[in-house]
Amino acid sequence: MQVVVTKHHGLGNDFLVLDLGQLHSQQIDPAKIDWSVVAKLWCDRQRGVGADGLLLLTRVADFKLEMQLLNQDGSRAEMSGNGIRCLAQAAFDADGHNSAVSYTVATDAGVRVVDVEPVSHDEVRASVDMGQIELIDEPKNWSNIGSDPNRPVMHLSVGNPHTVVGVEDVSVVNLLEIGQKIPQVNLEIIEPGPENHAITMRVHERGAGITQACGTGACASAWAASIWGLVPASVRDVLVHQPGGDASVRLNHPQPGRVTLIGPANFASRHNLELAL
Predict the structure, then answer these.
(1) Total-model pTM
(2) Helices in the chain by DSSP H: which ranges?
(3) Any bridge partners for residue 153, and if so which?
């Protein structure tokens, strides 16, 4: 069976989006598809289209969606801040909207509200209520990393697990080597600035490796940076510089303990792909 898949990216963190309505219209049960195998095939950058992950879109009602996320390696993830913006853009474009709308999206991490505003033919700006930031236990084998005990470290959940480490210079850290030692979490390294309301971040993502950007990682990093004093206590909108571009994280919004992620999503391409049944 051939299906139409669109490719989108949020600051270079790219995803394939498949609207499962195409399967339902052919009376095919998506639950019978091995999506792990599909994700590994389609997301392979040498043998497939190539992407950091596959997003499965289910329409529940006009402005209510469901999102399932498969990483590049076929593993399932709870949440993606860049991915959910890409999913919302795919729905926004397919619905033919030309003015701002809000989607309620059910994810494995809970329900998220995404406000989408068009910027150009292939770009939207989206704001996502990312939910509560929570402390979690350090990942297994963290003690084997050999991190300087005086270096700031915080283990956080943004619906998915993160370890944030403060460093002097993100460019000199062997992020791949360290990230591979704790593959069960997303690892962010951050440094302050260069602006006083900003941080600079690099990320090694669970199931994908080093990526250009990470939305949930930006949220975790901004939260940790505020607690550590890397940005002034008065700053509520933290600018997060990443290799793929900049995102903004609004702290304690819309309620204390929660964060809102703001950034672009861009349409990249459309593909007719074979789905083995």
Answers:
(1) 0.95
(2) 21-24, 35-43, 81-95, 175-181, 215-228
(3) 165
> 95-114 as b/e, with b when 16 or more CB fall inside 10 Å?
eeeeeebebebebebeebbb
Structure tokens at 163: 């370890």
- Identical topology for domains 2-127+264-274 and 134-263: yes
Strand duo 161-166 + 153-157: pairing: antiparallel
Under a CB-based contact definition with an 8 Å cutoff, are residues 226 and 192 in contact? no
Burial code (b: 16+ CB inside 10 Å, e: under 16) for 238-274 equals bbbbbbbbebbbbbebeeeebbbbbbbbbbbeeeebe
Answer yes or no: CATH 3.30.300.20 is held by domain 134-263: no
Kindly list the domain boundaries of the chain, sorted by start residue.
2-127+264-274, 134-263
State the DSSP H helix or E strand holding residue 131, giving kind and residue range, or none if neither: strand 123-132
H or E element that contains 110: strand 110-120
CA separation, residue 125 to residues 80, 119, 232 (Å) = 16, 6, 26
**Which residue matches tokens 């309301």?**
197
| 10-residue stretch averages of pLDDT, the chain, 277 residues long | 97 98 94 96 96 97 96 97 98 96 98 98 97 95 81 96 97 95 96 98 97 98 98 97 98 97 98 91
Q: Which two tokens stand for residue 175?
A: 């992020």
Give the other-Cβ count within 10 Å of 175's Cβ: 20
The topology (CATH level 3) of 2-127+264-274 is Diaminopimelate Epimerase; Chain A, domain 1 (3.10.310)
Q: Which residue has the tokens 């084998």?
A: 141
